[in-house]
Amino acid sequence: MSNVKGLRCRECGCEYNEGPFYVCEDCFGPLEIVYDYEEIATQLSRERIAASSPTMWRYGPLLPAAPDKLLLDIGTGLTPLIRARNLGKALGLQNLYVKNDCVNPSYSFKDRVVGVAVSKAREFGFDTIACASTGNLANSVAAHAAHCGMKSYVFVPADLEQAKIVASSVYGPNVLAVDGNYDQVNRLCTMIADEYHWAFVNVNVRPYYAEGSKTLGYEVAEQLGWHAPDHVVVPMASGSLLTKIAKSFGELADLGLIEEHQTHISGAQAAGCSPIATAFETASEEIIPVKPHTIAKSLAIGTPADGHYALRVIRESGGHAASVTEDEIIEGIKLLARTEGIFAETAGGVTVGVLKKLAESGRIAPDELTVAYITGNGLKTSVAVEGRLTPLTHIGPTMRAFERTLENG
Ligand SMILES: *Cc1c(COP(=O)(O)O)cnc(C)c1O
Ligand SMILES: [Zn+2]
User: Fold this and answer.
1) Residue 376: CB within 6 Å of ligand 1?
2) Strands 199-200, 174-178: parallel, antiparallel or unpaired by DSSP?
């Protein structure tokens, strides 16, 4: 048995029984999970968490999937939280950490959400899992389907990085490359989900899927010795991850696992697709859809489903939202690699670029305990930095050639 009591509409509060539903029949608002927190409190303590599995499933009581044989644990989570002294020095931040989520089984944070969604899809009796993806989600859905022997269909924009297509196809799913942008892919998948009895991880099982992102907050608090950070910087596509990190700190405080603490939640986008950051910067309530045009393809959602909720979290937490140019994204990737030895994908370049901006403008104070979330692996988007690195030194296979090169500096 999981600790889920049911589903509730985030807009009108209407309640529903548990099932593969995602939208309110009354007002079309999105549904979210209602938990039995009293029961959860009896199942969780710092000691019990420390003694359980070294994966995201150590926080199983706070996730909507039941701890039984249908739960799919492929080793996701409990990724390193690195004290980033060198990057901190470069940015004038004395207390900076990097959460390195590049090292999950399919090399992005999406394994966290998919782990929950697929476990739930199995519980609901689906035999096919599917998704609309900007790349990383497709990789993760295909990997999880392979692991548990389910059929899978992944839908991606056809102009995706080749490495991300390969990193899906290798697991043997049906890859559908759609001539259109993510928002068009997503619309198509919503129509398919209405007609076919498939579990679209980010459509009809989205309320469950989204909860997986909370583990990125729980882990950071645990790794900091059961403290919430002062400030976090989070990349935003739909905005869901950012809202769930905020939720996770609140839950831990309510359960008494950490002390109540004000964490400033800041969001990062690419200037080529920044509907949420633009609304923040213009102090607008309205999130105006955009047509994405950026190398940060994993964040290229022009109509962000959780944009309003993300905006509210950012404002209420005293955080900021900002965007960076394509050049700043590449500089961000290189800066992180050269200071900390972590090769992030373009989304990581966005996060580091925005971190730099917020530090330089004083919006992050030098002594704030700050965590930057690095959510995807650079080998998937290496094409973005090709031609932007120091050229190779070619030499003949002789000592003489080698020594001549050294002399020439
Ligand atoms: C999907 C994704 C995000 C953000 O996801 P949300 O839709 O905002 O939850 C961040 N980083 C990477 C690398 C991603 O693939
Ligand atoms: Zn409703």
Assistant:
1) yes
2) unpaired
